[in-house]
């Protein structure tokens, strides 16, 4: 086990007097159960229920009365109801949808109990008669391990302490960049990170990657409505690792003969399982961020390490010094997106990018993020140099002067000019700091960029 950032969110939840039952979202194997078990050590009493087990699911089917249900749970697990500091963890809650509906009664009638549910494919398993209790439940998302979690697992305490300093000390750059390339190679699946930290053997990871993909196929295809969709899901769940990082079309996805509608349903099923993200662009340069669902989405998969493995890119990543030759730079862009997602625990905070589609001038900025009343563009470059034409076009359309480039170089701020002579400040952020993008944007905007330009 290694420390996870979600622990801080769980501690905040416990300390909130107005807390509600908590549903932890996330794909299988990202560490939801382990995180709650670690969190449970801060309680006087812990009740663990796995609804894949018939004996644990039975009380939720047998009792409509919440008092009888709680009485049965404490009795069956031989726990003391008089102990107030009790955490009840309902794992694999999607296996018994009625349990989700009952969460509202924990909130309304037994607020003294701490209740967490966890599961995947929640939207898929809910039928029309069972609804998630709106306003009675809170949500957090658990994602693959981030770079700073990877540093902790690897025992790199000095590097981790430097990572947490804003702004970073220059002398930490080379070591953090080297460690980040290892992280970009293996990814953030907790089982992979833990095994590599203990054994430092890349070859031994193959079996784990393979077992992960098999478990995802077996899990997701259970929710296909017919045999045809099962076959399409099976195709898509492997094809996504080849198409990752690109803007995709549903028709013929993954070099197949499948149609737009069937592929769309399959990919949305994978998205519900949080194995992929369909990232739609915005054409606007102001808040709020409004995705244009008529345009082609960009495909983000759960984990860059799995992408490397199944696309056969691990040797390329291992030998790269700046990720420029790997998958045409898409690995750098993809791992930055993964880090941004890892820093966000809210269900509805995803990724967004910007496009300008005009016949004579097509432009695309890799990511856009909200900061106060501004939409900040974030361009990812896999080399220390590279043109910023799309970034210039974006900045010509906004009334602020702040932009970000994630790249393999040192942390610094530049003052640059668009072709239309607009001056703006560019935060050059080492891409190993992508997890801390929000903190660095705050530092950047609230500092005096003019005084530190070029430093």
From TrEMBL:
CDD domains: AAA (cd00009). Residues 18-147 form the AAA+ ATPase domain. The lineage of its organism: Bacteria, Pseudomonadati, Bacteroidota, Cytophagia, Cytophagales. This is AAA family ATPase. SUPFAM superfamilies: P-loop containing nucleoside triphosphate hydrolases. It comes from Dawidia soli. InterPro entries: AAA+_ATPase, AAA_14, DUF4143, P-loop_NTPase.
């Amino acid at each position: 086990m290694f420390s996870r950032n979600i622990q801080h969110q769980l501690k905040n939840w416990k300390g909130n007097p107005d807390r509600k039952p908590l549903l932890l979202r996330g794909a299988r194997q990202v560490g939801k159960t382990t995180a709650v078990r670690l969190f449970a050590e801060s309680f006087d009493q812990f009740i663990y229920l796995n609804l894949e087990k018939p004996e644990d699911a039975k009380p939720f089917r047998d009792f409509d009365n919440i008092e009888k249900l709680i009485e049965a749970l404490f009795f069956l697990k031989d726990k003391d109801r008089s102990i107030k500091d009790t955490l009840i963890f309902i794992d694999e809650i999607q296996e018994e949808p009625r349990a989700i509906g009952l969460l509202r009664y924990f909130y309304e009638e037994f607020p003294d109990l701490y209740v967490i549910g966890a599961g995947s494919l929640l939207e898929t398993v809910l039928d029309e008669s069972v609804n998630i209790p709106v306003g009675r439940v809170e949500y957090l998302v658990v994602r693959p391990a981030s770079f700073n979690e990877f540093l902790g697992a690897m025992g790199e305490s000095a590097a981790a302490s430097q990572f947490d300093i804003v702004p970073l000390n220059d002398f930490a750059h080379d070591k953090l960049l080297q460690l980040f390339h290892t992280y970009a190679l293996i990814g953030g699946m907790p089982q992979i990170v833990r095994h590599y930290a203990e054994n430092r053997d890349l070859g031994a990871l193959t079996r784990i990657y393979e077992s992960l993909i098999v478990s995802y196929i077996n899990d997701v295809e259970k929710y296909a409505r017919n045999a045809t969709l099962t076959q399409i899901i099976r195709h898509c769940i492997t094809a996504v690792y080849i198409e990752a990082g690109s803007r995709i079309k549903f028709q013929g996805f993954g070099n197949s003969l499948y149609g737009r509608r069937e592929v769309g349903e399959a990919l949305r099923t994978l998205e519900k399982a949080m194995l992929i993200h369909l990232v739609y662009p915005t054409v606007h340069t102001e808040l709020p961020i409004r995705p244009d669902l008529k345009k082609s989405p960009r495909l983000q998969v759960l984990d860059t390490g799995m992408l490397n493995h199944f696309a056969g890119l691990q040797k390329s990543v291992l030998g790269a010094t700046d990720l420029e030759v790997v998958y045409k730079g898409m690995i750098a862009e993809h791992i930055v997106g993964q880090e941004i997602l890892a820093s966000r625990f809210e269900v509805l905070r995803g990724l967004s990018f910007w496009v300008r589609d005009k016949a004579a001038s097509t432009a695309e900025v890799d990511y856009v993020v909200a900061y106060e009343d501004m939409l900040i563009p974030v361009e990812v470059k896999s080399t220390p140099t590279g043109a910023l034409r799309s970034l210039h076009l974006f900045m010509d359309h906004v009334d602020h002067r702040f932009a970000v480039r994630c790249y393999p170089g040192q942390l610094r701020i530049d003052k640059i000019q668009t072709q239309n002579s607009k001056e703006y400040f560019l935060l050059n952020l080492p891409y190993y700091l992508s997890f801390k993008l929000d903190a660095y944007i705050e530092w950047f905007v609230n500092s005096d960029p003019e005084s530190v330009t070029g430093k």
